[in-house]
From TrEMBL:
One Pfam short name: ABC_tran
Keyword DNA damage: no
UniProt-recorded name of the protein: Putative glutamine transport system ATP-binding protein
Family: Belongs to the ABC transporter superfamily.
Transmembrane intervals: none
């Protein structure tokens, strides 16, 4: 799979398959194409050629059902992108009502369940500005889960958070992983990668330079570029 922005070749010969229940952590320097890869996975960007399959969904071809893909793929961003003028409950229930056709009461019951799951059951009726960054990100995760996705994509979900809030968000993600959610996570949190990933992918300049189980990757990275990166971040 390749991705160009005009003449800029951003993703180069990427072959990626994500299996059910797998947790893939993507790491690499800034500008290496990690966000673009995630955006291609839920078709926020088009791709040219090649193999990109997530579960049973081929994401490359023109025939891909983009609406279905987006419904089945939840995405959580660095900046939480909550609707500021809507309550937490509204933020979580809007899409299930509008896109999935759930009734309001059905969607609200599910939303309250999800808020309990991410540890903030008491925040249903407040506005995003009344929440800490970590709480806002947990609402964003609950909002993603409300669509009952088959896979969740996370793009540096803790990079905009104060250090003391990072753990609470990673904790929710770890819990999701343990429950069997299929996940692709771009992060600089190497502890999370080591502990939770089934597979670590290291990207540099638009290529997958190295991939493997976390023990092998962190223990004996083979690529020079990966060694250098790890020496800087660990
Ligand atoms: P990362 O997430 O690893 O930091 P990105 O996927 O954001 O990397 O970016 C990869 C490359 O693609 C960078 O050179 C970036 O400038 C470029 N790029 C990203 N989005 C666009 C866009 N919409 N138009 C043009 N170039 C882009
Ligand atoms: Mg990025």
């Amino acid at each position: 799979m390749n991705k160009y922005f005009g003449s800029l070749h951003v993703l180069k010969d990427i072959d990626l398959h994500v299996d059910p229940g797998e947790v893939v952590v993507v790491i690499g320097p800034s500008g290496s194409g990690k966000s673009t890869l995630l955006r291609c996975m839920n078709r926020l960007e088009t791709v040219s050629g090649g193999e990109l399959t997530v579960l049973d969904m081929a994401l490359g071809g023109r025939k891909a059902d983009v609406n279905r893909l987006r419904r089945d793929i939840g995405m959580v961003f660095q900046h939480f992108n909550l609707y500021p003028h809507r309550t937490v409950l509204d933020n979580i229930t809007l899409a299930p009502v509008q896109v999935l056709g759930q009734t309001k009461s059905e969607a609200e019951a599910h939303a309250r369940h999800l808020l309990a799951k991410v540890g903030i059951p008491e925040k249903a009726d407040v506005f995003p500005s009344q929440l800490s960054g970590g709480q806002q990100q947990r609402v964003a995760i609950a909002r993603g889960l409300a669509m009952k996705p088959k896979i969740m994509l996370f793009d540096e979900p803790t990079s905009a958070l104060d250090p003391e809030m990072i753990g609470e968000v990673l904790g929710v993600m770890k819990q999701l992983a343990m429950e069997g959610m299929t996940m692709v996570v771009v992060t600089h949190e190497m502890g999370f990668a080591r502990e939770v990933a089934d597979r670590v992918i290291f990207m540099d300049e638009g290529r997958i330079v190295e991939e493997g189980a976390p023990a092998a990757f962190f223990g004996q990275p083979k690529a020079e570029r990966a060694k250098l990166f790890l020496s800087r971040v660990l």
